[in-house]
Amino acid sequence: MDTELVCITCPLGCHLKVGRLDDGSLAVSGNRCPRGIRYANEELLAPKRVVSATARIAGQGRAGASGDGLDAIARLPVRTSAAYPKEGVPALLAAIYALEVRLPVRRGQVLVKDHEGSGVDIIATRTLM
Ligand code: SF4
């Protein structure tokens, strides 16, 4: 039985039909370009996601009003630098929630390099001084 997917690689959003061949490989149709085949293989055989979350800030709340309007922010928004294997996302989130980030932090700053040897970093998505 075919699996149906919408390719999200580009705005055309091709509707893919994906069947499994006897050798375990996938037969993809409905794609308008080869990237749809790559997308279907990754999504069905090794799905990945960019993960966004928040990390604890050391010493919260921040003493003294800075006048920057950010005093109410208790956690730092973070994300992975690239898509991360979906089956590892719960452990990745646990690692993010265990973090305690010291300010100042600049947007794009690497907080955890090469998480668990994945080649994926955890980075800040906001500057907080
Ligand atoms: S198959 Fe190609 S053209 Fe279609 S949505 Fe994916 S990337 Fe875009």
The CATH homologous superfamily name of the largest domain equals CPE0013-like
Task: Give the class-level CATH name of the largest domain.
Answer: Alpha Beta
Number of domains: 2
Form type: elongated
What is the correct CATH architecture of the largest domain? Roll
Which range does the strand content fall in? 25-35%
Q: Structural class, from secondary structure content? A: alpha+beta
The set of bound ligands, ions and cofactors reads: iron/sulfur cluster
What does this structure look like?
There is one protein chain. With 129 residues, this protein is of the alpha+beta class. The chain has 2 domains: 3-45, no CATH class; 48-124, CPE0013-like (CPE0013-like fold, Roll). It has 2 helices and 10 strands, in the order βββαββββαβββ. The chain has helices spanning 34-45, 89-98, and strands spanning 3-6, 15-20, 26-29, 48-49, 52-57, 75-80, 84-85, 100-101, 110-112, 122-124. The strands form 3 sheets. Strands 8-5-6-10-9 form a 5-stranded mixed beta sheet. The mean pLDDT is 91. The structure holds iron/sulfur cluster (SF4). Iron/sulfur cluster (SF4) binds next to helix 1.
Search tags:
alpha+beta; three-stranded antiparallel β-sheet; binds iron/sulfur cluster; elongated; CPE0013-like fold; 10 strands
Write the layout of secondary structure elements.
Elements: E1 3-6, E2 15-20, E3 26-29, H1 34-45, E4 48-49, E5 52-57, E6 75-80, E7 84-85, H2 89-98, E8 100-101, E9 110-112, E10 122-124
Parallel strand pairs: 5-8
Antiparallel strand pairs: 1-2, 2-3, 4-7, 5-6, 6-10, 9-10
Bound molecules: iron/sulfur cluster.
